[in-house]
Amino acid sequence: MKKVLNLIGIILVILVICIACNNEWEDEQYIQYACLKAPAGGAVTQIRVKYKGDESTLYKLPVTMSGTTPNIKDRDIHIKLDPDTLEIYNKEHFYSRTDLYYHMLDETFYDIPNSSVHIPAGKQSGLLDVNFKLKDLDLVDQWVLPLVIEDDPSYNYKSHPRKDYNNALLWVTPFNDFSGTYGTTNLSVYTEKSKQPIIVDSRITHVVDENSIFFYAGVTKEEREDRKYFKIIATFNAESDSTGTVSLEAAYPEVINLQVIGQPTYEIVKMMDTARPTLLRKTVTVTLKYTYEDALELPNYTTRYTVNGTMSMQRNINTLIEDEEYAIEW
Predict the structure, then answer these.
(1) What are residue 193's phi and psi, to 5 degrees?
(2) In angstroms, rounded to a whole number, what is the distance separating the alpha carbons of residues 275 and 189?
């Protein structure tokens, strides 16, 4: 009998705890803060923006109200530029390597029509419209649009106290049909004295315009201080929907003495994925051969390189999504 009474007592205690827990969820568990939905562990957030030349591309940045209960107020969340956080981030991550700093995007390359976002009662989020126009943006440097939620005693909200949530360092990365990361294991680099090729696993390419990209010659690293002198601009000249020629041009021909051998070409192959029928796999393969010189790395010495082979980039595209920026699985 005593055991039965003890068991009944335990059950009653559990029921009381459960009821108390359920009542707690009716109240707000956390303070409702205004947030920008671009946290990345204190780092920058890379956003892909379709390059459209003189036309603008619309990007929508989510603005949210945190919390466990519905938002019951009409709120107007105010957004402003945040150059201070960007400066701190650069100093903490790159120290004296100022050539690697993220640069604040100049206002000529973007427009924010309305710097406040309205979140009506009953809704948890809104969208900040940013129009990017990225023609002539030099991607030798990396460009960030730093934004933060503005606080004021007169506003009917508070921003999140954590930097990762009340601000957004948007690393703006334009793309076209040919930009991205190419696999370059089939691209051999030789010096005059080497018999074994130097192999670089991959090469990042950057947008120049709708049909052009640039990459760094041969074995030049993205982190090299004088990397801009080794820019090679590749322009894709279509001959059909899937093939064409590629024109190569040095950004600083007097420095690297670029010599193109033969006619570079490209080919595009599209194939639907067998496991995921709505996924299109698009592969761009470039075949090229060229020579260039590097007289900057070692004092009083010029290294001559020959580059020969192919480089390929594959994009996985979800055909169910109309917006190209979100359809590509980056």
Answers:
(1) -100, -5
(2) 36
Q: Sort 92 into a burial class: Cβ within 10 Å, 0-12 / 13-18 / 19+.
A: exposed
pTM of the model: 0.87
> Beta strands 125-132 and 75-81: pairing type?
unpaired
pLDDT, tens digit (0-9, with 9 covering 90-100), for 55-65: 999 999 999 99
On whether the CB atoms of residues 290 and 256 are closer than 8 A, the answer is no
pLDDT band with cut points at 50, 70 and 90 for residue 150: very high
CB 295 within 8 A of CB 301: yes
**Separation of alpha carbons 305 and 142, rounded Å:** 27
Residue type, 305: Y
> Which residue, 232, 196, 239, is CA-closest to 212?
232
Q: Are 315 and 328 in contact (CB under 8 A)?
A: yes
Residues 6+ apart with CB under 8 A from 209: 51, 53, 135, 176
**Helix, strand, coil % (nearest 5) of the chain?**
15, 45, 40
Tokens of 31: 């303070």
pLDDT tens across 11-49, in order? 544 444 444 444 444 444 467 899 998 865 558 999 999
CA distance 64 to 33: 8
Strands 34-36 and 57-65: antiparallel
